[in-house]
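INFO batch 0412 | record 1 of 1 | parsing
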Amino acid sequence: MSDPFRIDGKRALVTGANTGIGQAIAVGLAGAGAHVVAAGRSSCAETVAAIVDAGGSAEELTLDLADPAAGAAVLESAGDLDILVNNAGIIRRADSVDYAEADWDDVMDVNLKAVFLMCQAFARGAIVRGTGGRIVNIASLLSFQGGIRVPAYTASKHGVAGLTKLFANEWSANGINVNAVAPGYIATNNTTALREDPKRNGEILSRIPAGRWGDAADIAGAVTFLCAPASGYVTGTVLNVDGGWLAR
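INFO prediction complete | emitting tokens
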């Protein structure tokens, strides 16, 4: 009997795979048997090395989604892909009354428009080939909450959740499962300042029922599950991986 949590022989593209959550996702998918195309605005050599050193298969790809159309073009040249993980994202902070239109456009281009165009290009290819596939978008706690001083990020992540459900409605009959993962507070380079601030760190931990910050590997495990045969009847869902934050 084959292992329903293995994805041997599958080809996966992961954006924002140079560090943090994206890097962990790439390593996790490779560990489950996939060949991973690790894409990032900066070099993903470290990610590829970690995968190869562990006996996996990977390659890196330079991809700057500040040009939202760049991802779709890459999909057309990357060969037949079975899995797409849209992880890349940016954030700009300012009071909403002062928020610059340029910051709004930059965030929406990377976090939402690029996600739409990449999903669209992936689905077009999979439908023509008749092969089906898996798409996992990285959402956020701010797909459900408002946050403060991050209007574009909040709007984009609400949009990611909505698109995930819409794509599932349209493409699941073609064998393309579309889901999202919403990470909670994860210990990465991006959250170092929060974790090193005793007051904020204490406030955050007191709200998390699990009593700890998440690891990037926690997100990788959820994504790998959504790409494996074990989740074959899971589509259109946003899976919260937050230590219980949203249940509080």
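INFO post-check: Strands lie at 11-15, 35-40, 57-62, 83-86, 133-138, 176-183, 238-241.
INFO record closed
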